[in-house]
């Protein structure tokens, strides 16, 4: 599972969250605003005063703004994201004009540098805060010899929605692991040698393995492993939707991951070790590097550890149909694209098409169109020949803000972090 701290309102379908600490925001102003024709005494009085905005946080939905406080009844007058703006802010405060929101630690308004912005006339409640977040693998139990869980190393998940996680676990004196997971699990034994007994569906193995030995448990499969020795394990969890999408894009629809209780795959091990290294170092090379490294691992899984049904499964999308959809999206990528248009391409009703598409590709038709738009947008960003607003228009997003929100959601960073 992934364990970490998230900022927001705590309302996420996945991972589960536990409240830790409420964030602190409050208005600040010049002392002179507490006097005069319209003294600032409470929240209703702010309508009489100029409100200063931090437009640098405009794409941060969790960051409170005057617009969220006043429900759109305010007017931005100053961008506080630059030193010049801060100097202007200080000058306005000396002239009794400035009124802004401040946040503990992260605010651009530093009282020791701008002493006239130090009065806190009243409080405002923020619904945002810090939450402990945990993404469960499914029904999982793991323990070392003393019955306690193993030491988990580097469990913080990568930014965005890569669909791939790396967890390093160290068991002392013995190891027990059993699971029926929601994700595909790939285990690498990293100890120099290990006596281990494994069971997975109808497969069993009792063996002594060397470092690098692997086991693969597809999602939903019961698996169990026992050892009477200390063990160091690298676990890679892959969302089934991520493997399904990669399979579809590799023209191998309906690929199924095979169970394995033993074996070696040097290429897969190197790909997993690269992910573990990025995880341990805090993702220093950014989300695109992580996604590309995760894609290489999934490509290796597809090549070496999947099989295809003898014939195309009923209720699945054919490869030719998917290619027609892909070609159509790229041909009309700057335009609005409706699910009904895509359904008509392959001769299905919109309702039936949506179900079959999600089952075959691992995401809804709408998300697949967004996925292709993001692919094209990121390619333009890397080329550096167009501005973000132009890229958004060229790739069919409503506007730059819409594109930026999707980049943050999928990759975990602003578009500027992808260049």
From TrEMBL:
Superkingdom as given in the UniProt entry: Bacteria
Family matches, as PROSITE patterns: HTH_ARAC_FAMILY_2
GO molecular function: DNA-binding transcription factor activity; sequence-specific DNA binding
Signal peptide feature range: none
Pfam families named in the record: HTH_18
Keywords per UniProt: DNA-binding, Transcription, Transcription regulation
Domain HTH araC/xylS-type: 323-419
Key word NAD present: no
Record-given protein name: AraC-type DNA-binding protein
């Amino acid at each position: 599972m992934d364990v970490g701290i998230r900022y927001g309102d705590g309302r996420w379908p996945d991972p589960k969250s536990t409240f830790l600490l409420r964030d602190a925001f409050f208005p600040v102003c010049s002392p002179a605003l507490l006097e005069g024709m319209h003294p600032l005494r409470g929240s209703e009085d702010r309508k009489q005063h100029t409100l200063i905005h931090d437009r640098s946080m405009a794409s941060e939905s969790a960051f409170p703004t005057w617009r969220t406080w006043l429900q759109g009844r305010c007017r931005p007058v100053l961008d506080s994201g630059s030193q010049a703006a801060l100097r202007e802010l200080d000058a306005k405060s000396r002239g009794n004009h400035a009124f802004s929101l401040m946040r503990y630690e992260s605010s651009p308004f530093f009282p020791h540098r701008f002493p006239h912005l130090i009065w806190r006339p009243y409080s405002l409640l923020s619904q945002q805060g810090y939450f402990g977040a945990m993404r469960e693998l499914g029904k999982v139990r793991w323990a070392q010899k003393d019955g306690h869980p193993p030491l988990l190393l580097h469990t913080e998940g990568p930014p965005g929605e890569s669909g791939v996680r790396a967890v390093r676990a160290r068991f002392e004196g013995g190891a027990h692991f059993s699971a029926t997971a929601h994700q595909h699990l790939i285990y690498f034994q990293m100890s120099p040698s290990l006596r281990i007994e494994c069971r997975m569906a109808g497969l069993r193995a009792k063996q002594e393995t060397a470092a690098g030995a692997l086991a693969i448990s597809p999602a939903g499969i019961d698996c169990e492993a026992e050892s009477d020795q200390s063990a160091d394990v690298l676990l890679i969890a892959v969302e089934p939707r991520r493997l399904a999408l990669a399979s579809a894009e590799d023209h191998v629809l309906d690929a199924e991951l095979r169970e394995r209780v033993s074996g070696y795959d040097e290429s897969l091990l190197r790909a997993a070790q690269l992910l573990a290294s990025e995880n341990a170092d805090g993702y220093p090379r950014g989300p695109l590097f992580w996604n590309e490294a995760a894609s290489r691992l999934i490509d290796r899984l597809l090549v070496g550890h999947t099989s295809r049904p003898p014939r195309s499964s009923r209720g699945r999308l054919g490869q030719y149909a998917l290619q027609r959809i892909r070609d159509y999206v790229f041909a009309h990528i700057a335009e609005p694209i409706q699910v009904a248009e895509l359904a008509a391409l392959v001769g299905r009703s919109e309702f039936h098409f949506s179900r079959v598409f999600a089952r075959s590709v691992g995401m809804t038709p709408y998300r697949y169109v967004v996925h292709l738009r993001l692919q094209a947008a990121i390619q333009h960003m890397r080329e550096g020949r167009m501005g973000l607003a132009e890229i958004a228009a060229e790739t069919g997003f409503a506007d730059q803000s819409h594109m930026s929100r999707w980049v943050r959601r999928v990759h975990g960073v602003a578009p500027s972090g992808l260049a």
